[in-house]
Specification:
- The protein has 19 helices and 24 strands.
- It is an alpha/beta fold and 644 residues long.
- The longest helix is centred in the middle third of the chain and has 19 residues.
């Protein structure tokens, strides 16, 4: 193979209701191209390994050994309104049907089969002479191993070929203990947790065509091994014969009274519940309603099981899903509503050929909502009340990892000096660095990348603080900084407006700019491919310099630009009025976001972020300094000046 592709999911957000940090399972945050299997392995085990202790298995990164096309995706807000975003989304239609590696998820879910350990599988793969790596999952325990196996292959494979390879490998090597439900288009793997057991081996690639030939022979000899795959691959049908309906009613009468629970039936078993369904429940993806979302999910669980779960098993799965939200459904709706949903779902006939719950017409969910999910802890206090000192004291006390953002370069040294006074003799416990434009040897982005590389070499959990400016924060890609909190000292300026006269050259501008769907009285703007190329140039002629600044602004990943409708539609009569906003979306990866400011919630920045990106601002109080002279006792002098 010449090139190996990997798409990753690394956007972590804090759920506004549960305050849990979770992976956004919808958004592809980037794509990497590798020349060797070893390079891909090192990226997964190092760059995608979660950098800190996790609260749950959903606080993690994810990856897919394929690539996705950019598409438009519609999202729903809590108030029922929708909005569209253009980006790379984890949807089957956008995925290239080409996997760069073979993978398997061993969960040892069959109690009648052998309990395989990572070393058992590793020894078998070594005997076969294959290159591979194995890492344990978040749920792994010594008494119940759970782990992922990734094997080098000698050519790319389709999803259908991956299924055949899975059945053959599961039979010959994995003892029938691997999960068959992770080979649908756009299915992804959870990346390594913070402290996994890892096993690697350098051998040769899996000979795909030889193994597919062996799989074909195995299928002819043992067709029953393919039953689970064939059920998943068969198209859904909604037609039910009278005989099937009667048979289902008789079966249901027994299942409704059966409170037994099989050991493998659980919301954590992908055979019954997909992880993204729990994400849907926490975000109330269906109609903004917890009740509607739960009914939709339980319907998909019922269909995915083939209508073969007992009442006790349905109640168990229901309760485990609700537990992810702190039992909010049970507290709000009570046992009667729980019983009502389960009764309704179990009364639905399941045609024998409906097995793919995502394709079932009755339970097809609407598109999930996707908002920024950012929660900003806001410290509001007047100048002199000690908000900065309190934050620096907290940093010195807790000794975590922080990015401290100052409004001006000259304030970086002031904050650094104050921190050193507070830390005192413990200063050697901190790694302190700074990045700003007065370091003329390197760009700010290069400085921050080098600092990040240094942090990655330090002991896990070692204390560090990195100082930078508002301008650096707004332009930087922080996706690798999820082990840090960010403290924004003073409210940043995130809006700008400017006018461009393009009456005679509007056609040229359209070569570089693309207008999206009408948003109020403005069009959201993006770059064409030609515009993206021009924005990367270091030198441009006087002709292109007129709009070069606009292109560079649009090339920044978190800058959003709109243009007034009348100017874009009728450039011969109107100037082009542009409005630019720096979004907070590049702050999503941080463990926690802080904002320190005098009346920060009244600022335009807070209003824009709250209205446009649904940022939640959470007040944070602290012990304020006592003033020598109370404000109420001070004299206010009002005056006018000719100068600002």
């Amino acid at each position: 193979m010449t090139e190996l592709y990997l798409s990753h999911l690394r956007r972590i957000y804090t759920h506004a209701q549960t305050d849990e940090r979770r992976l956004s399972m919808a958004e592809i945050t980037g794509c990497e191209v590798f020349q060797t299997f070893a390079d891909l392995r090192d990226f997964v085990l190092n760059k995608l390994r979660f950098p800190s202790t996790q609260q749950s298995k959903f606080e993690t990164y994810g990856w897919v050994p394929s690539v996705f096309q950019f598409t438009d995706r519609e999202f729903r807000r809590k108030d029922g309104t929708t909005f569209t975003r253009h980006g790379s989304w984890r949807v089957g239609e956008a995925e290239l049907d080409h996997l760069s590696v073979f993978y398997a998820d061993v969960d040892n879910a069959d109690p009648s089969g052998p309990m395989l350990s990572p070393h058992d599988v590793a020894n078998a793969l070594v005997d076969l002479g294959l290159s591979f790596f194995i890492y344990t999952s978040f749920s792994h325990k010594a008494e119940h191993p759970k782990f992922r196996v990734v094997v080098e292959i000698d050519r790319g494979i389709s999803r259908a070929e991956a299924l055949d390879l899975f059945v053959a490998t599961n039979y010959a090597v994995l003892g029938g203990q691997a999960d068959a439900s992770i080979y649908d288009p756009a299915d992804f793997l959870f990346a390594p947790p913070a402290d996994p057991l890892v096993i690697t081996h350098d051998g040769g690639p899996m000979p795909v065509d030889d193994l597919l030939a062996s799989a074909a022979a195995l299928r002819e000899a043992s067709p029953e091994l393919w039953q689970v795959v064939e059920r998943a691959a068969r198209p859904a049908r909604a037609d039910i014969t009278p005989e099937q309906a009667e048979e289902h009613r008789a079966k249901l009468a027994v299942l409704r009274l059966d409170q037994s629970i099989r050991g493998e039936v659980s919301a954590s078993n992908r055979q019954f519940v997909r992880p993204e369904w729990i994400e849907d429940y926490l975000t109330e993806a269906v109609g903004g309603s917890r009740w509607q979302t739960m009914r939709s999910i339980m319907g998909k669980v019922w269909l995915k099981s083939g209508g073969d779960l007992t009442r006790g098993e349905m109640e168990t799965i229901f309760g485990e899903i609700d537990a992810a939200s702190g039992f909010r459904f049970a507290h709000r709706h009570g046992a009667s509503k729980t019983s009502e949903i389960i009764e309704f779902v179990m009364s639905r006939p399941v045609p024998p050929r409906i097995v793919d719950a995502e394709a079932a017409p009755e339970w097809k969910p609407i598109l999930e909502r996707e908002e920024s999910g950012i929660v900003v802890d806001t410290v509001e206090a007047a100048c002199g009340e000690g908000k900065t000192h309190d934050m620096l004291t907290r940093i010195a006390r807790e000794r975590g990892r922080y990015v401290y953002v100052c409004d001006k370069i000259e304030n970086i040294e002031k904050r650094r000096a104050e921190l050193l006074r507070i830390v005192g003799r413990d200063v050697m416990r901190f790694h302190i660095a700074q990045a700003h434009s007065q370091h003329e040897e390197f760009t700010v982005a290069k400085q921050l990348r080098d600092i990040r590389a240094t942090l990655d070499k330090l002991w896990a959990g070692s204390a560090a603080i990195v100082f930078c400016t508002h301008a650096s924060m707004l332009m930087m890609d922080w996706s690798d900084w999820s082990d840090c909190e960010v403290i924004i000292d003073e409210v940043p300026e995130v809006t700008a407006t400017f006018t461009l006269n393009a009456r005679d050259n509007h056609d040229l501008l359209r070569r570089y700019l693309r207008a999206g769907d009408l948003d109020g009285q403005c069009y959201p703007m993006s770059l064409t491919q030609e515009g993206a190329v021009l924005a990367q140039r270091r030198r441009v002629d006087a002709y292109d310099r007129q709009h070069y600044g606009l292109l560079v602004m649009l090339a920044k990943p978190n800058t959003k630009v709109w243009v007034k409708r009348e100017g874009w539609d009728d450039p011969g009569s109107n100037d082009l009025d542009f409005f630019c906003f720096s979004s907070p979306e590049n702050l999503k990866s941080f463990r926690r976001v802080w904002l320190l400011g005098d009346e920060a919630m009244k600022s335009l920045t807070a209003k824009v972020w709250e209205e446009r990106w649904r940022v939640t601002f959470r007040p944070y109080d602290f012990e304020r300094r006592r003033r020598a002279i109370p404000i109420s006792s001070r004299l206010t002098i009002l005056y006018f000046s000719q100068h600002r």
